[in-house]
Write a structure and sequence with these properties.
The complex is a heterodimer. Chain A contains five helices and no strands. By secondary structure, chain A is an all-alpha fold. Chain A has two domains: 88 residues, no CATH class; 258 residues, Methyl-accepting chemotaxis protein (Helix Hairpins, Orthogonal Bundle), CATH 1.10.287. By secondary structure, chain B is an alpha+beta fold. Chain B has a single domain, classed as PAS domain (Beta-Lactamase), CATH 3.30.450. Chain B has six helices and five strands. Chain B is globular and about 40 Å long. Classes of the chains: A mainly alpha, B alpha+beta. At the A-B interface, helix 3 of A face strand 4, strand 5 and helix 6 of B.
């Protein structure tokens, strides 16, 4: 560089020197231009002459390089900042001229548009992110709902299965019960009929016993009359016996008198003997009567006793009959109740059977529904998983 | 290396469509300055080449601003900053500086490049006031490092209040 300053300062004395001077600066200028063309904007022409066209040319090259250098540095910095989202850093236009200025203005306009778009994009991105979060929440809810639905459906299916098997058990039990009840109804009807027969017979028995008692009771006064009559007859027989005795005495006296009276009395004696014989026959007859009466009275007494015993026995029978009748009535009523209850139970059982069939049907349908539900829940789970994955991709892509 | 010249309080201006350009090596030694630079700073090219860039530093500038600037570009980042520079005769000029590292083909920093534009006047008013506060804060400390740290904390608190990064702040201030 020492000769360079030499040239700039040296007075141009001769034509030869002048030619050398120009050659030197042209060579220098050429070198700087070549470096600039290669992209090296650092080189400048230093200590150039201050006057003349050569000076204008050399300073012009420097000026051109300064403007280019400034433009390149500015544009680079602005673009670099814009790439980082620092859109405030634009190319400073002041001092920029012509095409440099137009290019810088174009760049700045682009930066402004980028800023607007970046702001819009940021807002959009924020909204998308928010939406994504919301969606993630919804999907999570969806997935958990699907899981819940699946669990519910499974327990529903299990319950339906249980219900079906229980309904089958109940149906079988109802059928069995129905058969048993039929038997009970039949048996209770037969019992009722049997009880009715017993009742009738007992009533008949009671009635017969009543009749017997009445008759026995009606026999009692007859027997009393008989006893009274016998007693009276006994009295009369005693009188007759006494009369017969007196008659015998009289006949004896008459015989004695007749014997004393002789023949006169002979006829009389025959009569007396006759009377005596009558008296004896009478006494004998009365004895026989008395004996009979005695026997009659004894028999009457026995009959009366027997009647009393019979009456008592019959009354006892009646009592028992009544008790039997009452007991039978209770039994019959109970049997009737059993029958009607059994009937009601049978109707109830029929209802149960029908209801159980309905339950079975519903349980089967429920089971089918639950299966479909499980399928749907699984599908939902898969869908929400795929949605989640897609959303994650989408958000990652969006953030990236 | 700073010339012992006092600020004149006179402000210089350059044109809206002009750019002040300079390049330095990694140590801040000036390797190129364009004619706009030379004119406004009042130096001839041979006077400025090989000088440290702080030759145009104005005493009103807080240290913490250059601290931030150098830390940023040394980290390979660009930085925008409002800077009050001082001309050779003590006049001053405000610039809106854009400083960037220059990399070689392998990505190593081989130097720095600065383009300065005409700053917005309202921004200059705001920044001027802020820099006065920062400078006052820095000058409250006898040790310049402590002062610079205090200035940096003040910048950070301003940024926190505005809820802006420095970059956003530099752009928002216009």
């Amino acid at each position: 560089m020492s000769h360079q300053s030499e040239h700039s300062r040296a007075a141009v004395s001769s034509t030869e020197d002048e030619a050398a001077f120009y050659r030197h600066w042209i060579a220098e200028a050429a070198q700087v231009c070549e470096r600039a063309a290669d992209g090296d904007l650092e080189a400048r022409l230093l200590r150039v002459p201050h006057e003349g066209d050569l000076a204008r040319m050399l300073l012009g090259i420097n000026h051109l390089l300064d403007m280019t250098d400034a433009f390149v540095r500015e544009s680079q910095a602005a673009l670099h900042h814009a790439a980082d989202g620092k859109f405030f850093r634009i190319v400073v236009l002041r001092g920029m001229r012509g095409s440099f200025r137009h290019a810088a203005e174009t760049g700045n306009a682009a930066t402004a548009r980028m800023a607007t778009q970046a702001a819009a994009l940021a807002e959009f991105s924020a909204r998308r992110s928010m939406l994504g979060k919301e969606l993630e929440g919804v999907i999570a809810t969806l997935a958990s709902s699907a899981t819940e639905v699946r669990a519910t459906a499974e327990s529903l299916a299990s319950m339906a299965g249980q219900t079906t098997s229980e309904a089958n058990i109940v149906a079988a039990a109802a059928e069995k019960t129905s058969g048993s009840l039929e038997l009970v109804t039949q048996t209770s009807r037969q019992m009722s009929e049997a009880f009715a027969r017993v009742d009738r017979q007992t009533a008949e028995c009671a009635s017969l016993a009543g009749e017997a008692v009445r008759q026995a009771l009606s026999a009692s006064p007859v027997m009393q009359n008989l006893a009274d009559a016998s007693h009276k007859v006994g009295g009369v027989v005693k009188l007759i016996s006494r009369i017969a005795g007196q008659t015998n005495l009289l006949a004896l006296n008459a015989s004695i008198e007749a014997a004393r009276s002789g023949d006169a009395g002979k006829g009389f004696g025959v009569v007396a003997s006759e009377v005596k014989e009558l008296a004896r026959q009478t006494a004998s007859a009365t004895d026989q009567i008395a004996d009979q009466i005695q026997k009659t009275q004894s028999a009457t007494g026995q009959v009366s006793g027997a009647l009393t015993g019979i009456t008592t026995q019959i009354n006892h029978v009646s009592e028992i009959s009544r008790e039997i009748a009452s007991s039978v009535e209770q039994q019959r009523s109970a049997a009737g109740d059993i029958g009607s209850s059994a009937q009601q139970v049978a109707e109830g059982t029929y209802e149960i059977s029908r209801s159980i069939q309905a339950v079975s049907l519903v349980a089967r349908q429920t089971s089918d529904c639950a299966s479909q539900l499980v399928f749907a829940a699984d599908e939902l789970s898969r869908q929400s998983e795929s949605l989640r994955a897609n959303l994650a991709h989408f958000l990652t892509d969006a953030r990236g | 290396m700073r010339p012992s010249v006092s600020p004149t309080g006179v402000e210089r201006f350059f044109k809206e469509d002009e750019i002040i350009v300079s390049k330095t090596d990694t140590k801040g030694i000036i390797t190129y300055a364009n004619p706009v630079f030379l004119t406004i700073a009042g130096y001839r090219e041979e006077q400025i080449l090989g000088q440290n860039h702080n030759i145009i530093r104005h005493p009103d500038m807080p240290r913490c601003v250059f601290d931030l600037l150098w830390k940023t570009i040394a980290a390979g980042q660009e930085i925008f900053a409002y800077v009050k520079n001082m001309s050779k005769n003590g006049d001053h000029y405000w610039v809106f500086a854009h400083v960037t590292p220059t990399f070689d083909s392998e990505g190593r920093i081989i130097g720095y490049h600065s383009n300065r534009r005409v700053p917005d006047r309202t921004a200059v008013a705001t920044v001027d006031s802020l820099y006065r506060d920062l400078l006052a804060e820095e000058n409250r400390h006898s040790d310049w490092r402590e002062g610079m740290a205090a200035g940096t904390r003040m910048v950070q608190s301003v940024l926190e209040k505005a809820k802006l990064s420095y970059e956003e702040f530099a752009f928002a201030i216009k």
